[in-house]
Amino acid sequence: MADVGRQPRPQVRLAQHTFLRLMRELESRSQHRREAGAFLLGRASGHDITRIAFYDDLDPTCLTGGITFHASGYTKLNQICRDSKVRVIADIHLHPGPGVRQSQTDAAHPMVARAGHLALIAPQFGRGVTQADQLSAHLKAVGGWNIFLQSKVADVFVVHPTLRGRLMQLTSFLRRSTPWTRT
What we know:
This is JAB domain-containing protein. This protein is 29% helix and 25% strand. The protein contains five helices and eight strands. The chain is globular and about 50 Å long. Strands 3-2-4-5-6-7 form a six-stranded mixed sheet. With 183 residues, the protein is α/β, with parallel strands linked by helices.
């Protein structure tokens, strides 16, 4: 883990059912062939994610294989933040393979280049991602990035359990494991 500068570590929180829906939606938008992503928004005074803004809703031409996000998308994002009285707390994007490390491009050109911003990366175009420890978390510091992998992701990003989230996981499990027959 790189530890660049000693900054307070906010613990960004997201409800389990919202996380599962987010991952499903990102996987769908990726079409299993290109990166996709979203800004995670919340109240100015907290770290709970209350709203999600998908990159391609803000900038319809940004999903180019990688992500090429234009100024017009940031303008729309800024308007959403002002109108809803929220701020960008974190962002998440998908990588094609099993790796969740930042690419050189990710590190050099973050979606939000501000110390304290949290960038999350999900593997396999999001396929099968159901828990935070499957992600990597990259906390922007003044001199670079602090990187959190596997169980350390919980130091900065927590998916808190919800009844709806547990039911979603159970339903998904049953669909995969139960051989239903039609008569």
